[in-house]
C-alpha cells in the first residue's frame, strides 16, 4: 500500500496574471496552491495571504464551479451584489456554481489576513466579472488570454 504524500512546505505564488489597471488594484497577495502538490484534479485548494489593502480577485462568479472560502486569520470584507459584510477568523462562505452573485474579499485592516479557498474544477467553467471590462479567453491550445469582454486582448 503506498504511503500518503505529505507536503511540509508549499511555496507561494505572488504572480498576478491580471493586466493593468487591474494588477495594481488587486494589491499584494500570495497564493499557495495546496491541492496540486498531491495530484488533486477534481477540486482546487488554495491558501490566500492578503496584505493590508489587497483584494482576493476582481469581483466575479463562476458559471460551472462551486467556491468555498474559510477565514483563518485577520479581518476581511466580503463584497457581493448585496453589499459588504465583515468576515473574521472562523467564518466561512460558499458560492454555488451559476449563482450570478459577484464576490471578492478585501483586506481593509492593517494586518495580514489569510483564508482557504476550495473550488471545484469543471471543464468549461468561466469566471464572470460584472464590474469590469474583463474576461479570460482560452485559445485552442489552452493558453489563457486576459481580454476585454468583446474578446480584444489587453496588452502584456
Automatic annotation (TrEMBL):
Pfam family, one: Cupin_2
Domain of life assignment: Bacteria
Coiled coil location: none
Keywords, comma-separated and alphabetical: Metal-binding
Keyword rRNA-binding: no
InterPro entries: Cupin_2, GPI/OXD, RmlC-like_jellyroll, RmlC_Cupin_sf
Keyword Metal-binding: yes
Domain Cupin type-2 intervals: 47-118
Protein name: Cupin domain-containing protein
UniProt source species: Photobacterium atrarenae
